[in-house]
Amino acid sequence: MAVGGKTVEEIRENKLEFQQGVLKMQIEQEADLDPKETVFLDRAIPDALAYYRFLGLQPDDLINDALTKVDYKKVFILERLPFIKDYARTENESEQLHIHSLIIEVYESLSLPVVHVPVLPPEERVQFILNNL
């Protein structure tokens, strides 16, 4: 999504356009993945539906079509670490908790195998995930 000199506020002003732009990039990235490889995604297509719901946006053909094509062997949802405000996140802690619960709801509604990863030291989180592949 080309943003050419816009502020964060200007980019996020049109919520639907912003979410569609993020989703289109995610669709492109996932289309380029080798299905024979083990790949970990920080964010994936279903996350977009959680953000649509959080923002009160109606799911459109773009998201509905993309969701019919997701085929993940397993989904790892990491329990949240302590809240830290940064430059990129506009949500407060309460909103982030809501988004996290929506993400869980979306993945579980898609009947994908979901593994919840507890808060652990980084090395232990990695081992937990590897043990549950």
TrEMBL record:
Domain NadR/Ttd14 AAA: 4-125
Domain of life: Bacteria
Gene3D superfamilies to which the protein is assigned, alphabetical: P-loop containing nucleotide triphosphate hydrolases (3.40.50.300)
InterPro entries reported for this sequence: NadR/Ttd14_AAA_dom, P-loop_NTPase
Protein name (Swiss-Prot/TrEMBL): AAA domain-containing protein
Organism: Sphingobacterium allocomposti
